[in-house]
Amino acid sequence: MSGAGKKGSTGPFGVVEWIGAACHFATDRNDFRRNLLVNLGLFAAGVWVARNLSDFDLMSPQAVV
Question: Rounded to the nearest 10 degrees, how much is the dihedral formed by the CA atoms of 51, 55, 59, 63?
């Protein structure tokens, strides 16, 4: 078994490895993958804002304080 001597090869990533992977992802030359994820995130944020702000009726009379 060639993988039996490796420590942590099947375990979850640690914080340092996660930060390293995030930095590698941010500086990766594969712009398509990064742009796709960023655009999907921005789209999801826009959908969330549109759904949560759709309850406001800007034409209704406002309460006088």
Answer: -140
